């Protein structure tokens, strides 16, 4: 149906509008100057009057620029005070045309319910630690892209579906810190941590909660970076290694993404007497560009080589690894396969299909081998060439903490959602513990005890996508709990 056919009387005819109880709606109406479409939400059982619209008009005009174009669906006809009014339920996209002083403005959003997420225990997990068992150390890891405020402002077109009140940093910071406090994880891996916000607000707040913070800003002029943060009462820092993917003079590695790899030791007595009792925790945010899968693979190769080097134990075996981050790649992508199998035959692969971000990839160039320069000293198993001889187990065998589909119908889990997309790109990966002990020197792994459930796209539509009043990033936090056996 053409949006020009959807007409509501001029604002002067609406002295009072009583609302129904629903989440996010769009109203289409026509005044003397043409068709206008507006986003907002009615408060249940409240009257909205003309004066209220005009009072907020100035703020509305400042938030939306005049030529923003979005898309909506789900037309529904509702009768309001015996007048026919067309409403659209939004799926994160709306039409917003030129604004005028006669524009209808809706009141600020009434509180929406928060997403319902519950704790999941894998079928093979044993969450009960035997009495007196000092050989096991349980810990939790949270991975969260918290959305840099500068990046939000630079990409405002992604957040047109949001009410203006939920976007300022003054609203988002308390929500983000409250989420972190609520989940109370032992280790935090945060992405898009803006440097000034980290130094002035985030680091002091988390230090007050008993966390120690490690941070790596992106290279160049980028405002944000990655942080690995851990409870100093439970873990001690053995080393912290920043990883820069930018390599001067390398045409492939010309982007400013980074990673951070830390070695942590449990603070219990058993760990202090065992030099191999440690966990390698890595955090990264790979390049976004869906058409540059070649860059993503090269960035990942550098990170995995560093993890392989740093996780090696004194006896030559591999220690347990947790790898977190925003990989800008979907669970069915070749890059995800690369992460979870340690191998990828990328020769002849379309460059735009590597990350799986686009259904019809626009990057058509085919990848050739070798992909990255020999000067990196990294082989096809993502190991440093000079060190590979002491690693007979080959590259890392990582496993995701999440299943990437929801029971009972297999709907895809969603970790990020804004006006242009809803998909999984965030992961907590780990080296799993084998049921039968592996032969040395293949090392030891971790047991997954549980995870915080994710949601699907319908659940996100009910809360008007991300960010919203309760969830202040365009990503959801991932949370998993592990057991380290020694």
UniProtKB/TrEMBL annotation:
Keywords: Phosphoprotein. GO terms for molecular function: 3'-5'-RNA exonuclease activity; mRNA 3'-UTR binding. The keyword Transport does not apply. Signal peptide: none annotated. It comes from the Eukaryota. Transmembrane segments: none annotated. One of its GO terms (biological process) is 3'-UTR-mediated mRNA stabilization. Belongs to the CCR4/nocturin family. This is Protein angel homolog 1. It comes from Mola mola (Ocean sunfish).
């Amino acid at each position: 149906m053409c949006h020009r056919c959807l007409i509501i009387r001029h604002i002067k005819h609406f002295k009072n509008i009583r609302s129904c109880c629903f989440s996010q709606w769009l109203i289409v109406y026509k005044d003397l100057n043409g068709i206008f479409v507006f986003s907002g939400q009615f408060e249940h059982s409240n009257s909205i009057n003309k004066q209220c619209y005009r009072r907020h008009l100035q703020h509305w005009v400042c938030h939306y620029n005049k030529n923003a174009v979005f898309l909506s669906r789900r037309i529904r006809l509702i009768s309001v005070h015996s007048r026919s009014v067309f409403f659209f339920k939004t799926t994160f996209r709306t039409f917003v045309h030129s604004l005028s002083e006669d524009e209808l403005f809706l009141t600020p959003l009434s509180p929406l319910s928060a997403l319902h997420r519950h704790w999941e225990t894998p079928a093979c997990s044993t969450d009960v630690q035997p009495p007196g068992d000092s050989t096991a150390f349980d810990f939790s890891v949270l991975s969260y892209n918290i959305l840099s405020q500068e990046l939000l402002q630079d990409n405002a077109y992604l957040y047109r579906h949001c009410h203006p009140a939920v976007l300022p940093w003054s609203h988002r910071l308390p929500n983000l810190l409250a989420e972190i406090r609520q989940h109370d994880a032992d280790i935090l891996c945060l992405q898009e941590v803006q440097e000034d916000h980290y130094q002035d607000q985030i680091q002091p707040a988390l230090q007050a909660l008993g966390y120690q913070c490690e941070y790596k800003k992106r290279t160049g002029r980028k405002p944000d970076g990655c942080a690995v943060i851990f409870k100093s009462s439970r873990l001690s820092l053995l080393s912290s290694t920043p990883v820069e993917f930018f390599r001067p003079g390398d045409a492939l590695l010309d982007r400013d993404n980074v990673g951070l790899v830390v070695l942590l030791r449990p603070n219990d007595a058993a760990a202090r007497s065992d030099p191999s009792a440690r966990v390698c925790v890595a955090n990264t945010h790979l390049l976004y560009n869906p058409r540059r899968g070649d860059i993503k693979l090269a960035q990942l190769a550098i990170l995995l080589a560093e993890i392989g080097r740093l996780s090696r134990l004194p006896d030559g075996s591999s220690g347990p690894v947790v790898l977190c981050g925003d990989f800008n790649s979907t669970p069915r992508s070749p890059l995800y396969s690369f992460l979870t199998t340690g191998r990828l035959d990328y020769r002849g692969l379309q460059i735009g299909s590597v990350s799986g971000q686009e259904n019809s990839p626009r990057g058509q160039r085919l990848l050739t081998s070798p992909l990255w320069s020999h000067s990196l000293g990294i082989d096809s198993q993502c190991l440093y060439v000079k060190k590979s001889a002491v690693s007979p187990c080959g590259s890392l065998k990582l496993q995701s903490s999440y299943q990437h589909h929801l029971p009972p119908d297999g709907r895809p889990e969603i970790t990020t959602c804004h006006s242009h997309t809803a998909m999984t790109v965030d992961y907590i990966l780990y080296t799993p513990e084998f049921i039968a002990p592996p032969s040395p020197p293949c090392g030891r792994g971790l047991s997954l005890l549980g995870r915080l459930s994710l949601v699907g796209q319908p659940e996100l539509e009910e809360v008007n996508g991300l960010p919203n009043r309760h969830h202040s990033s365009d990503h959801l936090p991932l949370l998993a709990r592990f057991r380290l056996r020694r």
